[in-house]
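Request:
Um, any thoughts?
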Amino acid sequence: MSAHDEHQVASGERRYWLDEPRNVDRVVYTLYGLCALLVLLDLLPYKDPEHLHYGFEGWFGFYAFYGLVSCVLLVLTAKGLRRILKRGEDYYDR
C-alpha cells in the first residue's frame, strides 16, 4: 500500500481522480488541444461559397471567434440582469 493510500484510509476521506492537480492539468490541456484542433480544422476546404449567407462566414476562425464573443456577451448580460432581478436576502422570511 502506498503512502497516499495509507493517508486516505487514515483520514477517512475518499479521494477522487480530479482531486489530483496533475489530473486537472491533463483535462485542461486536453481541452486546449481540442479547441486548437477545431480551429485548425477550419483550414480544410469544406466551405461551399454558395451556402454562405455572408462573406465573413468564410473567414478563418470566424465561428470560434463568434462563439467566444457570444459566450462573453451572454455572461455579461446575465450579470446585468442579476442586478435587476435579484431578490433581497430576507425575501422569503417576510
